[in-house]
Specification:
Blueprint: E1 2-6, H1 11-22, E2 26-31, E3 50-54, H2 60-68, E4 72-75, H3 82-87, H4 89-110, E5 113-119, H5 146-165, E6 170-175, E7 178-179, H6 191-201, E8 205-208, E9 214-215, E10 218-219, H7 220-232, E11 240-243, E12 249-250, H8 251-262, E13 268-271, H9 273-277, H10 292-298, H11 306-319
Parallel strand pairs: 1-2, 1-4, 2-3, 4-5, 5-6, 6-11, 7-10, 8-13
Antiparallel strand pairs: 9-12
Helix pairs in contact: 1-7, 2-4, 4-5, 6-8, 6-11, 8-11
Bound molecules: uridine-5'-diphosphate (UDP).
Length: 322
């Protein structure tokens, strides 16, 4: 079976590639290395079952050539992370909307089963926790750039569901704060990466606002397992799934955990959102997935406890000599 992974040199994408390679698939990665790195996939480059194409999902000539030959597509290529989106909203909107439109249009043409990576960010600042796949979205005004990411991913989902209505087997996965080895050490898109880097350098850990906002961090091996199930379980076609752990933790507690784990002498400083993201910023206060649908249809449940996942992640950050 030939699998195309867009964004396969990225953080989640490269772990997905590892799992697919281990399961014997033929894997092609399409990635323009905007945030992904060759180092993430270097260990597969010699394999006969592996190909890497350094190009963008916006290049429809390349994309068509690859989709035509695929039996299954995992579409993960995107501009991800609140920080990137806030810094360059136009690029994020174009890549995240047009890119997915391209992938789905071609998947429809060549009739290829496709998994679209979406995000828990689509729920916006909804306070109806746990967040159910069919629950309402709650977003701020268009003048707050953060929400353009939520809306771009929502448009991707609308496209996916519209193609599903035409019979194409498409599945949407909404990721909840994946973490693990290969996180970008600069911390783009991940507070865990930022805290580890800060702790290992002896710099202060920057907890935003009061640190009582929560997230459910999901170890990347779990994220990847859920993703593969979404692309292979027959009943998953046409469905949307939360893929995440439902263990909730406040960011201030996460910072303390990371200090304890690293044994770092760093202190914790509380920073207002405005100095981190500028004046037009709104935050999601609590983010917890409802995990029932993934459990019932995919048989998926996140398994790696936060402490264990953080230990494995720390090992990687240490080996990178930051
Ligand atoms: N956060 C923080 N300090 C940082 C970076 C992030 O306190 O240096 C908080 C951020 O406000 C959010 C949470 O950590 O509440 C998760 O942020 P991240 O960027 O990892 O992902 P998000 O869930 O916001 O997409």
């Amino acid at each position: 079976m030939r699998v195309l992974v867009t964004g396969g040199a990225g953080f989640i994408g490269s772990h997905l590639v590892d799992a697919l390679m281990a399961q014997g698939y033929q894997v092609t990665v399409l990635d323009n290395l905007s945030v992904g790195t060759v180092a993430n996939i270097a260990h597969h480059l010699g394999s006969e079952r592996f190909r890497f194409i350094n190009d963008s999902i916006l290049n429809t000539t390349t994309l068509e050539r690859l989709v035509r030959r695929a039996d299954l597509i995992f579409h993960l290529a995107a501009v991800v992370g609140v920080k990137y989106v806030v810094e360059d909203p136009l690029n994020a909107i174009i890549v995240n909307v047009r890119g997915t439109e391209n992938v789905l249009e071609l998947a429809h043409k060549y009739w290829v089963r496709t998994v679209i990576a979406s995000s828990s960010e689509v729920y916006g600042k909804s306070t109806v926790v746990p967040l159910r796949e069919d629950g309402d979205r709650l977003l701020g005004p268009t003048t707050v750039p953060r929400w353009s990411y939520s809306d771009a991913k929502a448009i991707d989902e609308y496209f996916a569901l519209a193609y599903a209505r035409k019979g194409l087997p498409v599945t949407v996965v909404r990721y909840f704060n994946a973490y693990g080895p290969r996180l970008d050490p600069r911390g783009y898109g991940s507070v865990i990466a930022r805290f580890f880097t800060q702790a290992l350098r002896g710099e202060p850990l920057t907890v935003y606002e009061d640190g009582q906002q929560t997230r459910c961090f999901t170890y990347v091996a779990d994220t990847v397992r859920g993703t593969i199930l979404a692309g292979t379980v027959p009943e998953a076609a046409g469905e949307v799934f939360n893929i995440g752990s439902d263990r909730e933790i406040a960011i201030a507690d996460l910072a303390r955990k990371i200090l304890a784990l690293t044994g770092s002498p760093s202190e914790i400083v509380y920073v207002p959102y405005t100095s981190a993201y500028g004046p037009d910023f709104e935050e999601t206060r609590r983010r917890v997935p409802d995990v029932h649908r993934a459990r019932e249809i995919l048989g998926f449940e996140a398994e790696v406890p936060l402490e264990e996942g953080l230990r494995r992640t720390l090992e990687w950050f240490r080996s990178e000599n930051l």
